[in-house]
Amino acid sequence: METRKLGNSGLEVSTIGLGCMGITQGYNTALDERDAIIFLRNAYEDGITFFDTAEAYGPFINEEIVGKALAPFRDEVVVATKVGFEFNAAAGERQVKVNSDPRHICSAVELCLKRLKTDRIDLLYQHRVDPHVPMQDVAGTIGELIDEGKVLYFGLSEAGISSIRKAHAETPVTALQSEYSLWWQAPDEEILPVCEELGIGFVPFSPLGAGFLTGSITAQTTFKKHDYRNSSPRFAIENRAQNLKLVEHIQKIAKQVNATPAQIAVGWLLAQKDWIVPIPGTTKRYRLQENIGASVLNLNSEIWVKLSEVADSFYLPGERFSPAALDLTGR
């Protein structure tokens, strides 16, 4: 697979990365450790060199599995993880609030390094902005960790433009990770222009709309008990029929160019900017290879413009997250 650089930082990664969250949580598709390790190593064999995890995924177990899986070729891959939550051992290590206190960040990084079986974190994100800690303090702390060699690059997740500017002024921000897809184009308005101005790479999570843009979800689809989509307003029955109209148009375009809807959705992201690196998540190798196929789509610009126009023409009901999820993640 070809590579891309995240903004002006020089950090070079595979054109498409792998979001690892679903390996342990989120969609009720968790793999056992052995299968997860095999899958992650297969991803590397297929050309993925950019792996995205977080202490909150599990929590903790995701980093442990990623660390074990990538250990044989650690120097050939880029590992991104995230810190900034506080966990409650009495509640089964459930995340209870954001916490980017500098002391907490430093202690969290030490634990991340152990779980990932590495001596440095290639890209460290603040998982969510902490309204109680000045962004300059967060960026300064991660800058010190970079000076110590424990972290190589600094990233933010779901941060707004004010937070991005404050952080970047203190310690250069290499990448911003936020949701972005044909289903959610809000970053076009302010976020992407600021990233371009400051030379910050952009890493879209949920580029396939949590599976919705693949065309595999219908009005009749039911999700298993622990699948977060059960509580997502976007996936509510009363919203799904309207949202499926967008998917139908993506399917038509995909058929015209002999591609899958997933490849069209990921390919559209890649066509926006050459410093955008989507990280679709999956636990199935055939889906992984399907996503990778988007990196070699050779379609004219009219297709990508048409897709944008189609997406803009629809009213897509339903918030991204439930009120409870918003409170939990500090968004």
What's the layout of helices and strands?
Layout: E1 3-5, E2 12-14, E3 18-19, H1 33-45, E4 50-52, H2 61-70, E5 78-83, E6 85-88, E7 94-98, H3 102-115, E8 121-126, H4 135-147, E9 151-157, H5 161-170, E10 173-179, H6 191-198, E11 201-205, H7 237-256, H8 261-272, H9 285-292, H10 301-312, H11 323-329
Parallel strand pairs: 3-4, 4-5, 5-8, 8-9, 9-10, 10-11
Antiparallel strand pairs: 1-2, 6-7
Helix pairs in contact: 1-2, 4-5, 7-8, 7-10, 8-10
Describe the overall structure:
The chain has 331 residues and is α/β, with parallel strands linked by helices. The protein is built from eleven helices and eleven strands. It has helices at residues 33-45, 61-70, 102-115, 135-147, 161-170, 191-198, 237-256, 261-272, 285-292, 301-312, 323-329; strands at residues 3-5, 12-14, 18-19, 50-52, 78-83, 85-88, 94-98, 121-126, 151-157, 173-179, 201-205. It is globular. Mean pLDDT is 93; it is low at 326-331.
